[in-house]
Design brief:
Low-confidence stretches: none
CATH topology of the largest domain: Aconitase, domain 3
Strand content: 15-25%
CATH architecture of the largest domain: 2-Layer Sandwich
Distance between the termini: 43 Å
Number of domains: 3
Helix content: 25-40%
Mean pLDDT: 97
Bound molecules: alpha-methylisocitric acid, iron/sulfur cluster
Shape: globular
Strand order of the largest sheet: 14-13-19-18-15-16-17
């Protein structure tokens, strides 16, 4: 039996275990990267573990999210991250260098390697043939401290792309939006998507990266493409041909599932509010007035994309009712555009050019007006994420975005008469790594600098045997981490201060949650009830730590998103699942639940008896924890566990 690409990489990194779907393995990791919004916690956690140097060959600390600097907090965080990188032996990508995923693809990602990133869009690296997985900060910190990475082997789904993107105005973003329409935001949970088929020949690395980037929206563990001649061409253009190796599946490779997508049939698609899988063909919603267009982000920031956008805008003026914002994803791309006069074409058309950072994608500036329609070449359109609660955010490919910026409304791109030149990636990129500070030799003189907003990581006590707590919130399915722990310009700067950020937990769903949770803390804490795919979206562990700080004892849901489930366990919160739909229906907000004999049940059959004390009935919930996860919960989370293991 032959191997698929995923299994080849996993097997070459195996420390312990068997590469079989559903089994837990430990793996050697080649690269870890952090970004600032999750990175401050990660580096605080690394410090708390107490190891003096990172133990992974390549560790990069990026600064890309918290860039507004409306007060001292972001700048203090940047200094903290820089000094931590210097002290512990990581590369530091300075503010201005761009968005972590785009830079990592350009300068560090290599086929056949395993990389972890403290951001859910780390799978962008799958475009180059790297197994790149998004994890919570604490998980990354333990790997940086020298522990292997443990994971349950997902199923591998082969997605065969056939033919090529023949239609005008169709880009790789339409491929992934078509898959999202097919599979939904939970269709990839517990799976890795491996792309193949004749259609990949026409996709270069950055085009592939758009597809793997947005695979995060499927809930997939990661997505990956083979490493072939196109990969070599990209690496040569990045002046790192030595990082190339060929990577392809064996002819008789086995997969858990197959999907075939005919690229010929793909047309321009658009995701409607408020979910990336709420996808329709663009032509179905023509006539909708557009007030804002945003182009860039980690999904669509390549030189090819930006040059195409510039060529559409050249000599035109952005529609009088539209604000066009462009955030090129990396300094490399930005500098090339600037040197070639392409930024001038954008400016001349009326585009507002932002710095190279996440910006409007995470509500750091560029919030739309009340009830306005914003169309973005980004990857997420969750309600309120843009910074405006009632904004209507749509996701579309960058070519469509540029066209809508000119027309002021959604049009069938086929009706756009101008010829769009076919632009590809260059054979040589501009290489100027002057904003990447390489790791320093260790020295006792280097100290970590912490501003007043940087507070210690709170830790939960060891597992308790009985939880008696009130259901403070009952929620539906697909609750995002943006719902649990919102981001945006007011809240993101508090990422290094859990007591302060905890005030905003569930703010957009129930503004009284934090207050009620604090009051409930003295009465045994609180429980949250959720539907399917609880905690989808980002990797932010703040969506676990901040509720834990407020006294959250458990979440009972129909099912959980992968990274958030891990983050809950890492911070000592038990992710219970319902054993029957009916039990979910019966529970109401305000009910007091009593869960008993937790420790024995966890060590035993993982079935737990819950008494609904308000309604007077009993039901059973379960967990599906592996041995390590049980241990983590018994210790009170990954931090106390790691400290115990390392010392
Ligand atoms: C996102 O796109 O939601 C973020 C902001 O990049 C997050 C990370 C974070 O919350 O800091 C992610 O994707 O993991
Ligand atoms: Fe940044 Fe948006 Fe990409 Fe998240 S999805 S890393 S916020 S650009």
């Amino acid at each position: 039996m032959g191997n698929n690409i995923v299994h080849k990489i996993l097997k070459s990194h195996l420390v312990e275990g068997e590469v079989v779907a559903g089994k837990t393995v430990s793996l050697k990791v080649d690269q870890v990267y952090t970004q600032d919004a999750t990175g401050t916690m990660t580096w605080l956690e690394f410090e708390a573990i107490g190891v003096d140097r990172v133990k992974v060959p390549v560790v990069v600390s990026y600064v890309d999210h918290n860039m507004l600097q409306t007060n001292y907090m972001n700048a203090d965080d940047h200094l903290f991250l820089k000094s931590s990188a210097e002290k512990y032996g990581a590369y530091f990508s300075r503010p201005g260098n761009g968005i972590c995923h785009q830079i990592h693809l350009e300068r560090f990602a290599s086929p056949g390697k395993i990389a972890l990133g403290t951001d859910s869009h780390t799978p962008t690296g799958g475009g180059i043939g790297m197994l790149a997985i998004g994890v919570g900060g604490l998980e990354a910190a333990t790997v940086m401290a020298g522990l292997p990475f443990e994971m349950v082997i997902p199923e591998v789904v082969a997605v065969r792309l056939i033919n090529s993107l023949a239609r005008p105005y169709v880009t790789p973003m339409d491929v992934i939006m078509t898959i999202l329409k097919l599979l939904s935001v939970k269709g990839g949970v517990g799976k890795i998507i491996e792309y193949g088929g004749s259609g990949i020949r026409d996709l270069n690395v950055t085009e592939r990266a758009t597809i793997t980037n947005m695979g995060a929206e499927l809930g997939a563990t990661t997505s990956i493409f083979p490493s072939d001649a196109n990969t070599l061409a990209f690496l040569k253009a990045q002046k790192r041909p030595y990082d190339w190796l060929e990577l392809k599946a064996d002819d008789d490779a086995e997969y858990d599932d197959f999907i075939t997508i005919d690229l010929n049939n793909i047309e321009p698609m658009i995701a409607q509010p408020h979910s990336p899988d709420n996808v329709v063909a663009v032509k179905e919603i023509v006539g909708l007035k557009v007030h804002q267009v945003c182009i860039g982000s980690c999904t669509n920031s390549s030189y090819q994309v930006m040059k195409t956008v510039a060529s559409i805008l050249k000599g035109k003026t952005v529609h009088r009712d539209v604000n066009l914002l462009i955030n090129p994803g990396s300094k490399q791309v930005y500098e090339m555009l600037a040197r070639e006069g392409l930024i001038a074409d954008m400016i001349s058309a009326g585009a507002r050019i932002l710095e190279s950072s996440c910006g409007p994608c995470i509500g750091m500036g560029g919030a739309p007006g009340s009830g306005q329609v914003s169309v973005r070449s980004y990857n997420r359109n969750f309600k309120g994420r843009s910074g405006t609660k009632d904004a209507l955010v749509y996701l579309a490919n960058p070519v469509c975005c540029a066209i809508f910026a000119l027309t002021g409304e959604i049009v069938d791109p086929l009706s756009f008469k101008d010829q769009i030149p076919l632009i590809t990636e260059p054979s040589e990129f501009l290489i100027n790594d002057n904003l990447i500070i390489p790791p320093k030799e260790s020295s006792p003189d280097i100290s970590v600098i912490k501003g007043p907003n940087i507070k210690d990581v709170p830790v939960k006590e060891a597992l308790i045997d009985v939880i008696e707590a009130e259901v403070l919130l009952k929620l539906g399915s697909n609750i995002t981490t943006d719902d649990i722990m919102p981001a945006g310009s007011q809240i993101l700067p508090l990422r290094s201060n859990i007591p302060a950020i905890s005030e905003f937990v569930f703010k957009n769903i129930d503004s009284s949650f934090a207050k009620r949770a604090k009051a409930a803390k003295n009465r045994g804490g609180s429980i949250v009830v959720g539907g399917e795919n609880y905690g989808q979206g980002s990797s932010r562990e703040h969506a676990a730590i901040a509720p834990m700080y407020l006294g959250l004892q458990a979440v009972i849901a129909k099912s959980f998103a992968r990274i958030h489930r891990a983050n809950l366990i890492n911070f000592g919160i038990i992710p219970f699942s319902f054993t029957s739909e009916h039990d979910f229906d019966k529970i109401q907000q305000g009910d007091v639940l009593r869960i008993t004999n937790i420790i024995d049940s966890l060590k035993g059959n993982q079935r737990y008896t819950v008494e609904n004390r308000t309604k007077g009935y009993i039901f059973i919930v379960m967990t599906n924890l592996n041995e390590k996860e049980k241990d983590l919960l018994l210790y009170g989370g990954l931090l106390p566990y790691t400290k115990a293991k390392i010392t």
